[in-house]
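Task card 7
Instruction: Convert sequence to structure tokens.
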Amino acid sequence: MVQEGYPVQLCCSLLELSRSGFYAWRKRPAKLISAQELKLYYTAKDVFDKSRESLGSRELMKVLRKKNFNIGRTKTRSIMRKLKLIVRQRRAYRVTTQRDLTHAVAPNLVNMNFNPTGPNQIWAGDITYLKTGEGWMYLSIVMDLYSRRIIGWTISPRMTTDLILQSIRQAYWLRKRPQGVIFHSDRGSQYTSNFLKKEFVKMNIKPSMDDVGACWDNAVVERFFGSLKHDWILKVHHATREEMAQDVAAYMRYYNLERLHTANGDVSPVEYENCKNKVSTFG
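Output:
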């Protein structure tokens, strides 16, 4: 016949716990969690998961505050520890575009002015490489530096001037054909091509290019690509190019509509533009 205390002793031995500790835990009253606290935990976990485990305590706190939770950094850290919300990042591969020395380059019209006073004053663009099981994909983006919103993007298995042109045209039509926009980029051969220069003239866009060796001249776009890769793309294996294209589209929606930006006063790019439009309408 098995003694009554034997299963408890065996379990405690397997878990490397003392029997006295087990009985003390069993007598301890369970801690009740309020409905509001439970809602806070659920929301924190949901927001963290949607970010693909990329939000630190500061960013998570900001999102929770926007969702009407009265919470500080210390409490947010405590919740992250309790729920085991651990930030996960991957190291990105780095490949850069190549310059064609036979192409003329445009002057630097931006000079690190990354904070224009209104929309459609300065756009910035660049290309990045994304790896899939079927080979590389090439992503061209256009960002309005006013709100940090991605207003044009194209993804393709081939890195061509047309890839860039399609993303610029997308931005041009989305923004209702603005005139006199400055478009800032690096000196890659796709951006310095004569074909693209002619298209810029048709759209009345003024090209601007960074200085030689000035790694910060397109820093805002570089930070976007860093977030795209570290916080999103590199955490999931993309077996096909189609999977990558769908995942990039998902990130664009998340970035423009949900991701908070310090430069925007901790609101998303779309929310920032909408708020400014209301102010200008009623001001």
